[in-house]
Amino acid sequence: MGEVTIHIDVCTDNAAFDGDASIELTRIVQDAVQHINTKKCVSRKLFDINGNRVGQIKSYVDLERFDND
User: Fold this and answer.
1) What is the DSSP string of 24-43?
2) Angle at 40 between CA 34 and CA 41, to 5 degrees
3) Tens digits of per-residue pLDDT, 3-32?
């Protein structure tokens, strides 16, 4: 078994985040985590509901981190 580290960066300074920003942020994160892979590193751009790029998600896989247990 290995370790997966996930970094998500989102900029919330546009109109898609007006009002309750947590709704749009939740939508973006739910979509992003579907692309996480435990076998390889992943890097994807994140887009708001209007199609504007608002950030990125990167996952790093270390397959040997817990192999000695």
Assistant:
1) HHHHHHHHHHTT--SSS-EE
2) 75
3) 889 999 999 999 999 989 999 999 999 999
